[in-house]
Amino acid sequence: AAGVIQSPRHLIKEKRETATLKCYPIPRHDTVYWYQQGPGQDPQFLISFYEKMQSDKGSIPDRFSAQQFSDYHSELNMSSLELGDSALYFCASSRGVAPNEQYFGPGTRLTVT
Amino acid sequence: QKEVEQDPGPLSVPEGAIVSLNCTYSNSAFQYFMWYRQYSRKGPELLMYTYSSGNKEDGRFTAQVDKSSKYISLFIRDSQPSDSATYLCAMSGGSNYKLTFGKGTLLTVNP
């Protein structure tokens, strides 16, 4: 079965640079969630989109922005990167707003040097 | 205090053992309770979910929710070395659908 696709899988950036992470949900899934997982930490919710509209917002820094496009893929844009932004960034998708059936992608490992 | 508390372990058991993993929570609005399995450097994989209180069984896995005690459990019977991973509990409820995770328990099943 098709899964959530994230790209790139690995990204190395320097401080103050920008990064764009992409997420392609499972076919027919219309809801996307972004989570950040620091080293040894649990995933923290950043933001979610349902039918291309922002549906919920968590602890996402103002330096980050995200959107969902007409084909339901989503992009997380991160500017003025800081060392503390180094983490695994997961995208999850669901059909409708479904807390119980969020399927996660493999993640993008961002390293800021 | 975190909304969801989970003992990070590590937990090491012999193959064939029954494993019990637990989480406690403080937010009464939580209604959906999930267990995810995460292998090293991989995304969390949804194992099971339970709505409200009760038990749910799927093969070797059983999930239990006790809302009165704000306590959830995952039992793994006849544990296998391939079950070695980090197990994360996650919860959701109220007016939003974001998942709130526990810190995860690192499980090793020794052959």
Overview of this structure, please?
- The complex is a heterodimer of chains A (113) and B (111).
- Chain A has 113 residues and is an all-beta fold.
- In chain A, 0% of the residues lie in helices and 50% in strands.
- Chain A has no helices and eleven strands.
- Chain A is globular.
- With 111 residues, chain B is an all-beta fold.
- Chain B is 0% helix and 58% strand.
- Chain B has no helices and eleven strands.
- Chain B has strands at 4-6, 11-14, 19-25, 30-38, 45-51, 54-58, 61-66, 71-76, 85-93, 100-101, 105-110.
- Chain B is globular, with a radius of gyration of 13 Å.
- The chains are: A mainly beta (113), B mainly beta (111).
- Chain A binds chain B through residues 4, 33, 35, 41-45, 48, 55-56, 58, 88, 90, 92, 97-107, 109, and chain B through 32, 34, 36, 41-46, 49, 51, 88, 92-93, 96-104.
Order of helices and strands of chain A: EEEEEEEEEEE
Question: What is the 3D form of chain B?
Answer: globular
Radius of gyration of chain B: 13 Å
Classify the beta-strand content of chain A into a percent band: over 45%
| Overall radius of gyration of chain A | 13 Å
Based on DSSP secondary structure assignment, what is the total number of beta strands of chain A?
Answer: 11
The SS-based structural class of chain B is: mainly beta
Q: What is the residue-averaged pLDDT of chain B?
A: 93
Distance between the termini of chain A: 36 Å
Mean pLDDT over all positions of chain A? 94
Largest interface: A-B, 27 and 23 residues
Counted beta strands of chain B:
11
